[in-house]
Amino acid sequence: MRGLLKKDLKSLAQQGRVGVLLLVFYAVLFALGGNEMGSSPLMGMMAMLSVLFPITALSYDEKAHWDRYALTMPISRNMLVGAKYLLSLLISLLCALLSLAAGLLSGASPLGDALLLSWVMAGVALFLAAITYPIYFKLGVEKARFVFMAVFLTPTILLLILQQMNVTLPSGGGVQIEHILPFLPLAALALFAASYLLSCRIYAKKEF
Amino acid sequence: MNALELKNVGKAYKGFSLKDVSFDLPEGYIMGFIGENGAGKSTTIKAILGLVHSEGDICVLGRDKKEITAVKEHIGVVLEEATFPDQLNLLDVESILRGVYKTWDQARFLALTDTFRLDRKKKIKDYSRGMKMKLALAAALSHDSRLLILDEPTAGLDPVVRDEVLDMLLEFIQQPDHTVLISSHIISDLERVCDYVTFIHEGRILFSMSKEALSEEFGIFHGGEAEVAALPREALCGLRRGKFGCEALVRRNCMRGNIPLEPAGIEDIMVLFVKGVN
Fold first, then answer.
1. What is the ipTM, given to two decimal places?
2. What is the average pLDDT across A57-83?
3. A135–chain B nearest CA distance, Å
4. Which of A31, A148, B78, B99 could form an SS bridge with A2, CB 3.0 to 4.6 Å?
5. What Rg do the C-alpha atoms of chain A give, in angstroms?
6. What are the CA-CA distances from residue B263 to residues A82, A113, B248, B269 (Å)?
7. A178: exposed, middle or buried (C-beta count within 10 Å: 0-12, 13-18, 19+)?
8. Which of A96, A86, A90, A81 is nearest to A203 (CA)?
């Protein structure tokens, strides 16, 4: 497992440096600007990045037929899948910490709010990873790219259509979103675990 | 003890299937695995390593195919086209494999890659095919491998390096519990190092025997059409017609009388078998 994580981190190192620089740049920008939107655009970006990094690692692997090679080593199929999920977890955690730092530095939000925002951001990142991985393991990077776009565009398009048709969305039955917000990342974490199990099942059937 | 046992191994694809593949590889020997492109060599090797799901029984270093992960520490593998991700360099690879194999020998890996003149800082994506092969071979020899499984390891290597690689295999096999399964198109390489030869054709094993048994079993008959036609039908395995007569691969024990035969090399046997009698 250690070797597998090392491999992903090392092959992502170059891209990672650019990504981190970019994030730091935006974090500073938002922190200094203290604009009305606070750090939420930054958070969105981080959530996306925390999914994009592991996918990039997957595409490097696929190009080199790494999985075929790795499975000749003392590495089980579940370990190979698990290493990718662990990578996501690590990157999400890193992004959450970065966004917490940015939130605090901007001074726009008190500690509690900044913590909540980072926590939610980590949840969004895990949610995205949970949906993405099984598709990638099933279809491979090339085909999954399109499905990935479809999955993420559909809710947006649906919302736009509903808006055009003047349909009012249910307000949540009087429950304040603030009350359920802290628990959403927990649901994402559960989904992430279920997604790991699903990916293992998909991967067990694969041939190389 | 057999390092490798295959019994009735099968795998069906659209348009190609591996059928009843059975052979044993005794510990301490080198087996050459030959056959034309698409004959099923790589599929068999993938089945042995559990990369594809197959029917039949496979036993590797005393373990059933379901438990193969447990013995992978002791298997060194070189596969065609499967390597490390592009962005890494040799030192990254070393550090990764140190985290993968419990018995990893860093000094040996670095010495081997130096022998192969592999650049330590160059990225894998800038390595040639031959260099990637050498890297994989060095990795396969730098942990406690008892069984080497090599799929076309000498493809893309120049004759000098091929010679070095073969010497390494001969050195590896000096340990009595070390075994090698090597598939190759370069028959002269196999002729030099193999103790056993297994020939696969259209997904089936045509024979699996020792090199000595092979030369006792087969011979080459040279003669005209009429002379070939007079040979016993059951003796004839393959035929090549040329300008100056025919060359026939025959089974010695089916020949009658004292007909002079030339020894058959592995390449003759493979080519003539594939050509067939028609």
1. 0.87
2. 92
3. 20
4. B99
5. 19
6. 55, 86, 12, 10
7. exposed
8. A81
With contact defined as beta carbons under 8 Å apart, do B196 and B210 qualify?
Answer: yes
Chain B hits for A53, CB-CB cut-off 8 Å, are none
How long, in residues, is chain A?
208
- Tell me how far apart the alpha carbons of residues B193 and B34 are, in angstroms, rounded to a whole number: 13
Among chain A residues, the shortest Cα distance to B13 is held by: A207
Separation CA A180–CA A185 (nearest Å): 10
Is residue A26 within 8 Å of A42, Cβ to Cβ?
A: yes
Quick one: which H or E segment has residue A113?
Answer: helix A111-164
Strand pairing class (B2-13; B16-26): antiparallel
Interface test with A, best of B69, B98, B143, B146 (most A CBs within 10 A): B69
Alpha helices in B173-265 (DSSP H): 187-193, 211-217, 225-229
Q: Which pLDDT does position B99 carry in this prediction?
A: 92
pTM, entire model? 0.86
Question: In this predicted model, what pLDDT tens digit does every residue of B197-256 receive, in sequence order?
Answer: 999 999 999 999 999 999 899 999 998 888 888 888 888 999 998 888 899 999 998 888
- CA dist A1 and B161 (Å) reads 34
B74-83: burial string, b at 16+ Cβ within 10 Å, e else: bbbbbbbebb
Task: Please name which of A7, A18, A19 lies closest in space to residue A60, comparing C-alpha atoms.
Answer: A7
Could you tell me if B65 and B50 are in contact, meaning their C-beta atoms sit under 8 angstroms apart? yes
For residue B100, which amino acid is it?
A: V
How do the domains of chain A map onto residue ranges? 2-141+176-205
Cβ contacts from A onto B, under 8 A = 95
Indicate if the alpha-carbon torsion angle A141, A146, A149, A152 is positive or negative.
negative
CA distance A103 to A113: 9
CA angle, corner A25, sides to A19 and A30, nearest 5? 125
Contact B275, B238 (CB under 8 A): yes
- Across the interface, of A3, A64, A207, the residue whose CB is closest to B86 is A64
